[in-house]
Amino acid sequence: MVPTPIPTRERLDEFKADLLNDTSPEAEILKNPDFFNVHNLFTVRDLFNARVHFGHKEGSLDDRMKPFIFGSRLGHIIFDLDKTAFYLRQALNITAHIAFREGVILMFNRNSQNAHLVEKTAFECGEYSHTRFWRGGIFTNANVQFNAVTRLPDLCIFFNTLNNVLAQHSGVKDSAKMAIPTIGIVDSNCNPNLITYPVPGNDDSPAAIELYCNLFKQAILRGKEKRKEMDAATKTQSEDR
Amino acid sequence: MASSRLEKIGTIFSRTTMLLRSGAMKLEDKPLWYDLYVAFPPQLEPRYDRPAPKMEIKQIFYEEDVIRAKYHKRVKNLGAVNLQDTNYQTQTQLFIEAYKHVKSQGALDEEQIIEVAQDIVRDKMKERSGSQKEPVGLVSSFTEATKESNRSTVDIKNIFE
C-alpha cells in the first residue's frame, strides 16, 4: 500500500529553519542537540549487560521492525544496539524536555512481573503510571469517565507496547488519537508505526526494564532540576531589579 | 478545542499543524510537545501506514561455529553451564581454543586434531574440578558464615539506637 501524500516533511523543514533563525532563550535551549546531557546516562555496554539486544524468535518477527535488527542467531532475533542507543538517547532527550516544560508524563506497562517496578519509578520521579487493564476511553472519553474536565498527559512512555494477550496496547492508539506523543520500547514482535519515538529493544527481561526505568527516571529528574534552577535564576534576577 | 482523532491519517504532527494553520486550534492552545517535535523530529515518521521495508534478515554465524558443530557432534554430554559466570570458560570454549592451538602447529590431519584437542579439554576439566572443591556441608558453611559476620562492622548491640 502506498501512503497517502501528506506533505509533513517539507513543512517540518520550514519550521526547523524558523527555529534556527529564532534567538529567544527558549529557542536557544531547543537548538542545543543535547541540552540535558542525556547521552552520558548509559553506554552500549550497559545495554548489552541488561540484555537489551535479545529479541523474540524469528517466527514472531514483525516486518516493520526489520530496520532495527542486527540479525538472527540460530532463530533468535538480535537487535542492533548502536541503533537502539541512538533511538533511546532521542527518547530520553524528549522526556527530559517534556519534564522541563512541566508536562505530565504517564508510564505504561502491562507485564505483571515488572508492573511494580514501573509504578515505583513513576512515584519516585513524581509522575504517573498505568499498569492495569486499560478501560477504553480513559483518554478519548476522559471528561465523562472522570466527571470533570481532565488534563491528559503530555507524554506517554510504554515500557511494553503489547497488552497481556499480545495485541497492541489500546493506549498507543488512543494517544495517537488525542495527539499525545509516545515513547515505546518495541520488541521484535511489536508494531512501531504509531509510536512517535520507538526504542527497539527487549521489553520482557526485568534487567532490561530496570535499566529503562532508571534511565527515564534520571532524564525526568534532570529536566525538573533544570526547571527549578532556571526559575530560581529568574527570581533572583527580578528581585535584583 | 478542535482536534482530529483520525490516527490512521498522517501523523500527530501533521494533524496538529493543519489544525493550527486553518485556525481551528488557536496558537496559544498549541500542545506542549509541538516545538519539541520540530526541534527533534523522529527518525521515521510515526504514521500508521508506513510500509515495512523489504530487507533480508542477516543470519549471524561465526568462524568457530564449524569447530563448535564438530565438537557437539561427538560430545553429547556437555553438562549445565552458568551463563552469568564469566570467570570460567565453558567446555566448548576450551575445545575451540585447543583446536585452534593444535591446528596452528600443523602436521596433523583433521581427525587427529579433534582427538588431541578433546584430550586437552578433558585434562583441563579434570584439573578444574580438582581445584574447585568448595566447602560444603553444615560445619564448613557455618564457619564461613561466622568469618563473614566477624568481618562486618555493624554493632548488633546498638542496632536500634
TrEMBL record, chain A:
Keyword set includes Ribosomal protein: yes
Protein's cellular compartments: Mitochondrion
The protein, known as: Small ribosomal subunit protein uS2m
GO annotations of cellular component type: mitochondrial inner membrane; mitochondrial small ribosomal subunit
Gene3D superfamilies named in the record: Glucose-6-phosphate isomerase like protein, domain 1
Function: Required for mitoribosome formation and stability, and mitochondrial translation.
Keywords, alphabetical: Mitochondrion, Ribonucleoprotein, Ribosomal protein
HAMAP family according to UniProt: Ribosomal_uS2_B (MF_00291_B)
Similarity comment text for this entry: Belongs to the universal ribosomal protein uS2 family.
Classification via PROSITE patterns: RIBOSOMAL_S2_1
Molecular functions per Gene Ontology: structural constituent of ribosome
Gene this protein is translated from: MRPS2
Species this chain originates from: Pseudolycoriella hygida
Top-level division of the source organism's lineage: Eukaryota
Pfam families linked: Ribosomal_S2 (PF00318)
GO-annotated biological processes: translation
TrEMBL record, chain B:
GO function term, MF aspect, one: structural constituent of ribosome
Predominant cellular place of this UniProt entry's protein: mitochondrion
Record-linked InterPro entries: mS23_dom, mS23_dom_met, Ribosomal_mS23_met
One record GO biological process: translation
Keyword line: Mitochondrion, Ribonucleoprotein, Ribosomal protein
GO CC annotation terms, alphabetical: mitochondrion; ribosome
Name assigned to this protein: Small ribosomal subunit protein mS23
